[in-house]
Amino acid sequence: MSMSQSYTALRPEFKEALKEAAKNFQTPFYAYDLQTVLERIDRLQKAFPGGEIFYAMKANPRLGILRRLLQWGLFVEAVSLGEVYRAYKAGFQRNEVLLNGPVKTPAMLEELDRIGIPILGLDSLTDLRRVIRMLPRARAILRVNPDLPIATHEHLATGRGESKFGILPEEVEQALELARRSRLEVLGLHVHLGSALEHLEDYQAGYAVMDRLYRTHGPFQVINLGGGFGLGLDLGELGAQAMALAHQHKVELWLEPGRYLVAEAGVLVTRTWGVKRTRRNYLLIDAGMSQLIRPMLYGATHPVEPLYKNPVMETYDLAGPACESGDVLARDVTLPEPKEGDLLAILQAGAYASSMSSNYLDTPRPAELLWTDQGWELIRRQQRWEALLEDEQ
Predict the structure, then answer these.
(1) Could you report the per-residue pLDDT of 240-253, keeping only the tens digit for each?
(2) Shared domain check, 193 and 94
(3) What is the domain range of residue 119?
(4) The one catalytic residue among 107, 323, 389, 392
(5) Are residues 28 and 100 in the same domain?
(6) Average of per-residue pLDDT values in the chain
(7) 52 and 155, same structural domain?
């Protein structure tokens, strides 16, 4: 990846603010541009007018972001009990939280009964039977596995038939019969094809499956068409098709964007600490897999923007500090030659960077900052060294 590769550059105001933040906060740290989140929300609402947006919390669950989404009228999608707790803490009501996920244990359902039952996304017949038995007054949607050849990384292609997610189309009738016999309120069906999808054809195929199921098994109150929108996906045509499907079946449209809303709003700021040559040319940085696991986990590529200048250019691999060969955040990045301590912004880190970060190698989690165009808000303090040990005996 070279700096000539197409990507959305940082807003100049945000870029300058990052340099100021680095004077007061230890690198690495995460920083988010609130204006970019607002622009993405506006883009989605224009493409899907009247659609209900359930933000996928796992992309970035910071309370400082969730509370603003609540103010702007968004709902949230959770995939764990902890995320439900977090959503309620942020101020969302029970009917503004959708809980998805493939396993809902009895202990989880008992706790939901205690703290308040969100809308439940049911992922299997086993899931359905357990909820019927333990939470018969719940409101639910049924997730469908459309059994399609989705074009994305295999770990992200949740709409393929071999995926662990959803009820196959031929099982939908049995699932609905079980629900209706129990009087469980099924609001509609749900399909989530995968993540980082860039091809309109995948969505069209998924929407066709949902159209057939709604013709056969309706009527329903809602249709949940998931998310997974690639950052470069043209939402104009997709939104028109989704809205037409919802109008045709006289249902409310639900969407579950996560990465699309926050990825480009966030950066991971790191400093350079030298150059090392083996058979590759490495630029040593203080951010690594503990703060950004996606390159190692998915082979994901993240653009890199220097926060310094030098007319002399060189090509590097960005080597993190972990004692792991896979701890390389980018390959073949052409950058101005840095001096020790110069700053880099690793882009598209607003989604699945902080939320997938870890304490591997006893690494404290970094500070997280939100830029409002009026100034910086600290939305998560850098983790204390003592916190790494406080749960141990």
Answers:
(1) 999 999 999 999 99
(2) yes
(3) 34-259
(4) 323
(5) no
(6) 93
(7) yes
> Who's near 339: CB < 8 A, 6+ residues apart?
272, 308
Q: Name the helix (H) or strand (E) containing 14.
A: helix 12-21
Please indicate, yes or no, whether residues 56 and 20 belong to a single structural domain of this protein. no
For residue 51, give the nearest of 257, 260, 264, 206 by alpha carbon. Answer: 257
- Residue that is last in its domain, among 259, 279, 301: 259
With a CB cutoff of 8 Å and minimum separation 6, the contacts of 334 are 2, 3, 4, 313, 314, 315, 316
Map tokens 């409002």 to a residue: 372
At CA 266, angle to CA 46 and CA 262, rounded to 5? 30
Residue 262 has pLDDT above 70, yes or no: yes
Q: Indicate the burial class of 178 (C-beta count within 10 angstroms; 0-12, 13-18, 19 or more).
A: middle
For residue 264, the tally of other CB atoms under 10 A from its CB is 23
Q: How far apart are CA 353 and CA 349, in angstroms?
A: 6
Residue 63 DSSP SS3: helix
| Number of domains the chain is built from | 2
Residues 163 and 254 in one domain: yes
Predicted local distance difference test score (pLDDT) of residue 274: 97
pTM (two decimals): 0.93
The reply to whether 284 and 255 lie within a common domain is: no
Residue 323: active-site member: yes
Q: Can you give the pLDDT at residue 9?
A: 87
